[in-house]
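ingest -> fold -> write
write: protein_1
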Amino acid sequence: MHPLRDSLRPLASLAATPPPFDPTVAPENPLELFVAWFGQAVEAGQLEPHAMTLSTVDADGVPDARVLILKDLTDDGWWFASSSASVKGVELTANPVAALTFYWPTVGRSVRIRGAVTRGSDDENARDFSRRGLGARAVALGSPQSKPLGSRDESEAAIEKAARELDAHPELVSPTWTLWCVRPSTVEFWQSDAERRHQRLRYSSQGQSWSTTLLWP
């Protein structure tokens, strides 16, 4: 395989001009700062600002990561949804801790969240599933996520069957559909600088309050 080094070096990085940020006057709660940064990313035209990387660990302690969508942010933490039978669902059930990473290159910012993971209630899971579009519900009902697939035709047939079942019974809910919440122990805000003089501010949970620490770039 041809090495990529010569192709990678000329590529631009950290080209954005971030909005002003003074960590010395940051809010006491990291959720408030996240909402502010998220809003600025949206205003700047960041594509899919709610996309985030979810990192988990398997039974052998090997990390695993994938990109999915933020469902909500509440006082409890950051919410996402998935089948409990998926790889991430199995890993979260066995070891309910996770990390989330948001990266918004349009504003040169990133946020990292680490913490314990809890599940939504049966009613919350059902409500979230029912709010999904028909196609998304059909996929959730008709496909055993992450399992080996024989052919594309096999998956299309299973999803079409699930869509017909939903058409006949709109109240159907996937028994494995689960809301998950990352309850943060630490939240780190990173703002880029073209000269690599990045700003980093870490919030650490202290029970009902938070402490903040400036970090070297």
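write: protein_2
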Amino acid sequence: MPSRLQRRARFLLLGVLGAFLFGSVPIHAEEAFVTNQLSDDLTIVDLATSKPVATIPIGGKPAGVAVAADGRFAYVASPDDKAVSIIDAVARKVVGRVEVGGGPLGIAVAPDGATVYVADWYNAAIRVIDAKTLKVTGSIAVGASPSGLAVTADGKLLLSADRDDDMVSVSDTATRQRLRTIKVGTRPFGVTIDTEGKRAYTANVGSNDVSVIDLAEGREIARIKTGLRPYAVALAQGRGFVTDQYDGTVSVFDVASQQPLKRITVGDYPEGIEATADGQRIIVANWESNILSVIDAAALKVTAEIKVGDGPRAFGAFLRR
């Protein structure tokens, strides 16, 4: 006869297995949620099979996108409609819409999924959306033409790349007040924070480089040269990967030495970029080619191309993990 302790352990194990089997613990293949600005839709790509599995009409020239950490919802900013669409990632359909006004572009979701932040390009502000009520509940004043947004893993700090002020604004998410500004290169667009929350990286479209920011010190500590018109940055395996729009390449740099390593040819006009959860692949959206390029992060070479919609931007955290 099994002991009480053994029966309890078996019960707990069955409970965990049941949760996985019956869906209370989400299980899904990693997917890319790619905003296609010219075809006014969003393509969902299964990264296990490298095939598109759904196309969702969005409208309003969708650009910015952010998938919640739990993979339940994705949020898409449409500048022409002045709105944010909410996509149920499981049902694969739009389930809500929030009118935010101005020019919504960059978008980010708090780690707990409770709050969505949207950069208002025209009004030097970040709109704050309650993810439960789908209401705009506040605004944070930042610099001119905020584009990329990123939130630290603890959810306490929000960074915005303020393109036309050549700086990054660092805001307190609790008080919704800007704490400081950090001067970077010319025309910063995408901004990425490392997993430790120690450093941030901006792709500077105007100066063709990446700024490395020490968040504790609140200052730029290095500049790394890239190709022409860098757009966004991804991090994996101790390396940074930067989309060079005008060169059709991804610049690779070493995070520790802050030195360039290589340039990888991808599609035409690469923009959005993100690393897969395991850090093994880098996914790149190519605006002119209408494809995703898949880069092996260790071998530093393109291993696949995936057809998507017209004018893919995928600006933000577009992977559903």
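write: annotation protein_2
The first helix runs from residue 4 to 22.
Residues 27-320 form a domain with the Methylamine Dehydrogenase; Chain H fold (CATH 2.130.10.10).
pipeline exit 0
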